[in-house]
Input
Amino acid sequence: MKTTRRNYCSPLLSFDIYLDHFHKTIKQMKSKMDISEINRSVNTVISKSLENRILNDQYDAIVITDKQQKIVWVSEGFYDMTGYSSSYAVGKQPTFLQGKDTQTSTKERIRVNLDNNNNFSASLINYKKNGEEYICQLKLFPLKDPDNNITHYLALERRLEAA
Output
């Protein structure tokens, strides 16, 4: 009698595949909600290329500042990343997260790029509310109105473990 061998997908493997898809779906939904909140809070429509960055790049938090670099909006992930609430952060400059080990050269590079309205990336040491330091990898983009005037800056921020 000939026996046939059947291949079965283990329930654990199926769950891993499901879980991976679930996390991607949740991240995409969160990113779409962030985009809606950005459009509403700064009363502008972000470009398709920036929208694609938000949908596809890895980030923990989004921070929107006005032209004077005062925070006008932060995503929910900001609290998880820094320990500071949205209500505490709004109205402050993101420099409140910096401290003694934040490199002056990096702060200067950020300032120069902001003054020149450039898209740019940088990594710097920031501090959580509890004093713990972390490396903040940021990608910054100017936001423009329909007349091509810069109105705000958007930062995609990702927390990396401190060295």
